[in-house]
Amino acid sequence: MKFIALLLVAGLLLSSCGKNREAEVDHNASKFNVGESDPAAIELADSVMLLAGGENWSKMKCISWSAPERKLIWDTQRGKLRMENQKENAIYLVDLNSGQGRVQQNGNEITDPSELKNMLAKARFIWVNDMYALAMPFRLKDAGATLKYMGEDSLKGNLYNVLQLTLANDGTGQDKYKVYVDIKAKVIKYWSYFADVNQDTASFTRAWTGDKYGNVMLSAGTGGVTLDEQLPEATFTEF
Question: What is the rounded distance in angstroms from the CA atom of residue 34 to the CA atom of residue 45?
Answer without folding.
Answer: 12
